[in-house]
Structures are given as structure tokens and as C-alpha cells.
Amino acid sequence: MSCFSCSSRPKDPRKRIAYTNASQSLSRVVDTIECEKNNLSPDGERSGGGAHKFTLRQLAAATENFREANLIGEGGFGRVYKGHINSGQIVAIKQLNRNGQQGSQEFLVECLMLIMLHHTNLVSLIGYCAEGQERLLVYEYMSQDLPPKREPLDWNTRIKIALGAAKGLTYLHDVVNPPVIYRDLKSANILLDDEFNPKLSDFGLAKLGPVGDDTHVSTRVMGTYGYCAPDYIMSGKLNVKSDVYSFGVVLLELITGRQAFDVSKEFGEQKLIVWSRPFLNDRRRFVQLADPLLQGRYPRRALCQLSVVTSLCLHEKPHMRPTMSDVTAAIDYVASQPYIPGTNCSTPPLSPPPKDVSASNRNEDNKED
After folding, report:
1. What tens digit of pLDDT does each residue of 71-113 get?
2. Is 323's pLDDT higher than 60?
3. Does residue 305 surpass a pLDDT of 90?
4. What contacts 24+ positions apart, CB below 8 Å, involve 39-42?
5. What is the distance between the alpha carbons of residues 18 and 178, in angstroms, rounded to a whole number?
6. Catalytic site residues?
7. What fold is seen in the domain 32-140?
8. What is the pLDDT of residue 3?
9. Could you confirm whether domain 155-362 is CATH 1.10.510.10?
10. Which of 61, 63, 108, 204 might form a disulfide with 83, Cβ 3.0–4.6 angstroms?
């Protein structure tokens, strides 16, 4: 894995999409999860978005009885298996570990979120199984892995991944009503298809964001070490800017080829944020962030621009971080300057870059969350 005059195009007034399930809004459905976390209807009447209800027997057959050879991943929810359903489609089947960190509530949150939310950069839910104590989710199968499981990605592919993931988050923050805070953005939750198009997955920790005059929602601190915003860790106050910080960590991984936290590194280099700070704080040293495995095959100007965006996302004060729509516009501008083999600098586009992302932050309310 993975200046501007950093970009931010003027905000287009966008109508938020309010999702409903029968007479219930997304807000009301998710608000009832605490009461209903063990009672997903056996008839699947909540699957208004078309998710199919599978039997445990069907999913056991699809995975050859959850054969170890079909295991493709494992996380807080449980194990993920590759399988073939009767239609012939290849799918990914996630099985809840009843002794794991996440449980029925996370299962319901993820199931409801993915039934109601649809975007090209969100993984698609095909169906679910809620039989006895078993809880399984069936997704479209994403074929590619991020390093270190495969060869290092080239610069242009890294930018493609960053842009797609940013678009997925922008949809959650700016289009969905009320906004959805992803809360567990990390490289492991960004899945890739055959053409390296990214899709956000694993919505078990997602939370509805503040509405009206509220600036945050207070919640138990959840997430992955190395990706969580420090303000959220310290206060438990969660808002969309918490996701922006996590996205900054993912950008840093794409730029440097390092992991957010790597115990194999020397003590002072284990936490990526700590190691990178001296370089992010000095624009003359941005080039030292570049993944050595890129071997200089990247446009230096675009690298500097992306480093500025990353630095803004990782700002310690949440209200000073850009919105995801601003970040998406900025990365879109970086993507307009692809690496051209045989050069270390691409030709800039004819039109001037949009204004600095940080400019919009200076006009925001300066009080901290």
C-alpha cells in the first residue's frame, strides 16, 4: 500500500437521500436494534432491499462445509469463506464467531446498512442467514488483496483506490440522511475487484451521525488501533471527522507502503503516524514518505499534493480536518496527474487547481467537538 495547492472545488448543493424501509426510516430501524438484536425475523421481512435469506445448509454446501481451504479472511466478526451458491455466483460468506468481539447487534447493523445503502464503492450484500444461533452474511466476492499479500501496487492504482474509497465515504457522509459514520475505516476493510476498484466493507461498527444542531454522538470507543482519531479515543465523541482521520491513515499507508501499526519495525517506527510526522510537517521532506518499492515511479508534484491532503486529514483538531467531499475533490485532482512511465513528473492539467482544501476549514466553526 498505500502541493495541491490542494484542491477543493466549490461545494455543489446536493440533496441528501433519506432511505426508508416500509414506513420506517434508516434512523428508526437502527435505533431499534438494541431491542431487537436477537430477533431478526426468520421470514426475512426486513430485507426490503432484496437481500436473500439463505439456510445454513445452503451456505455450508456453498463453502464445502466451511472447509479451511476456502477461508479467505478473519476479523472481529468472525471468519470469511469463499463459496459458490446455486446460481453459480462466487460469493464471500462471513460467519459470526459467537465468542468473538462482535455479536448479533453488529450483524444486524451491517445487514440493515447494506440493505439500505447502495453505492458503487460499497460492497454489495447478497443475503444473510439467521438460523438458530448462527449468523452469516453473504457478499459479492472481491478478488484482489492489498499488499502484503500481493505485489506492490503502482502509483496510479494506489490513487484509484484512494479516490474510490473517498467517494464511498463521501456518499455515507454527505448523501445519506442521516449521515453514516463508518467508524472502522482501515486498509483491511477496503476490498478490490479484478480491476482494482475499491469497495468499503464491514459495516458492523457503523453509527448514525449527529443531526440538527448536534455536533457529535457519544459512544463507546470502537475501531482498530492505529486508525482511530485521537479526539475520539479521548472523549468518545464521534462525528464524520473521525472517519476523515482514519482515511488520512489509509492515505499514509498508500503513500508509504507501511502499515498503520507494525510490530516488526523498530520501536520508534512501529506507529506510522509517529514515524511520518517529521516528513508531513516539512514540505521539503514529502518525497521521503514515498514507498521505496515504487522506485521513484510516481509524479513528484502529485505526491506532494497527496501528502498535503493526508496531513490535513490527520489534523489533531477535528474541526480543522476537511470534509470528505473536499478530500474527494482533492484526490480527483491528484488523479488527473497520473504517473507516465519513463518520467518522474507528469504534465499538470491545463486548468489551474482548485483552492486549498484547508481554506474551507478556516471558515468553519472553530470550536472543538
Report:
1. 998 877 789 999 999 878 899 999 987 765 556 777 888 888 8
2. yes
3. yes
4. 40/104, 40/107, 40/108, 40/111, 40/128, 40/130, 42/130, 42/131
5. 7
6. 184
7. Phosphorylase Kinase; domain 1 (3.30.200)
8. 35
9. yes
10. 63
